[in-house]
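User: Show me a protein chain along with its predicted structure.
Assistant: Here is one chain, sequence first, then structure tokens.
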Amino acid sequence: MLNSVLDQANLKKLEALDNKKVMANLEMAIKLCKPAKVTVITDSSEDIAYLRNLAIENGEERKLKMKGHTIHFDGMQDQARDKANTRYLLEEEVNWGMDVNYIMKDKGLPEVLGFLDGAMVGKEMLVTFFALGPQNSDFTIGAMQITDSSYVVHSETLLYRAGYEHFKSILKGSDDFFFFLHSAGELDERNNTKNIDKRRIYIDLAENTVYTVNNQYAGNSVGLKKLAFRLAIKKAHTEGWLAEHMFVMGVHGKPGRITYFAGAFPSACGKTSTAMIPGQTIVGDDIAYLKKVDGKIMSVNVEQGVFGIIKDVNEAGDPEIWKALTTPGEVIFSNVLINDGTPYWSGMGIETPKEGENYSGEWFEGKKDKNGKEILLAHNNSRYTIRISELENADVLANAPEGVDTKGLVFGGRDSDTTVPVVEALDWAHGVMIGATIESETTSATLGAEGVRVFNPMANLDFIAIPLGDYIKNYLDFQNGVDEETKVYGTNYFLKDDNGKWCNGMLDKKIWMLWADGRVNGEYDAIKSPVGYLPKYEDLKNLFKANLDKDYSEKEYNQQFSIRVDKYLAKMDRMIAIYSKVKMPAEFTAQLENQVRRLKEAREKYGSVITPDKF
């Protein structure tokens, strides 16, 4: 069977791996999907160039005017992660303690395999290998991807480190790796998936395998991203480490000092832009593995690239990304407007054309979809894919096998009326509670209505692959054996005033991170409040002036850092209602109760809106 679709050169590439599970996966995929041809991709520059050219030749991508830039369009109904059709395959019922989308394996597996049956007839199957983590690192997990989409694999060569040699040496004879099988399915005249009603993304936790079919949007099709992440969360829990929806960045406080932070934010809540703050350095922007090593928390970026939301990326707010997107280099744009070979998107800060081509086909201002809704020049979830090495602010330790010494964690969400811009947790357990009680207003990054407040613990709700109580306990236990208690911060960039206007500018996040850096390094005192330690006005005033040349008024400070007790208590009521239905560690339940008690005591003493000076 292999000889009928593989030539001798490709067969030798496989045989060199000496891995029975790799061969078994491939034989299954060939028999099921029935491709016309199979190509095995190694880490060589020739093989990577083949993928780039193939994406152009088959029309999945088109070259743009600037050297190295290409455009990919997903279909009209394939613009975000499909949460409804992303399911775990379970062999028995599990009490997750939260809403989890699953299907019993005896029903779901035949269904998805049925959709994959013959999905690659007449197509070329691409067999690829990647490393989830730095090369030659104890953190790294191997990943095998089979797909019929050169766009998917081209994206993965930007987002992930090459892994063929990792399989050839470290994983020789091992079955301890993740496996992903994907097909875009039947395509229309624009090379977009036709059978959206048969779109499925099924995750088999027991077998470390993901099946995904009838989709192209990277969040559904690039198996190594959020699909592999779910597998890693279960593996991390089993082995006693953390796999998290986190950026990793270096904050540069005093000259010559770099303090590393990891931070979790739901999609479209400022995670990438935080990792890209001017003057700081980025290790990674999306997924991190954290392990305890010699009494320290060490973190690595699972990826080597960025699959970022491009909406509102502009020169003023995101100078590092802007420079990378507007100069020659390897970049894949998706679902933006193209006019005369140049990409345009919403919020880019320059005048944009009134016509061109986008994900809907030929576009003109005022164009409407079949439901009469106006089609924007670029989708709100349009993206760019780029290697971190293309960025001038890439951290020197971005690929360090041992990871970076992580001194603080940051949790943030999109909250218009309750939480303060930055607060330090009272201790590690309180910090876990801050992360576990994130609520965030929905955005265009997932299908469905926007602006709905959603519970999202650790910005990870969509991906937690174990019961919620176990996940939180793993977090609480993770501090055991760490020499110095890790500081935890809550942030909120989206607070609005009574008139519905943003309280902060896009670059103010730099001040919050510099304050956290100062706290970690013992430079600033803080105000102890019921919700954690608040910054002092004079410290923020000095930071704003020194770093943004901005006069920060006491009026702004009081507006942003007043504790809105009734709002906080309403949030805590919602959280207690959720967690009361879940078997949780007693230490965590005590944190919820204690925060409510502190807030009520403060309200009785100071009223329902309390300025920081009262504490």
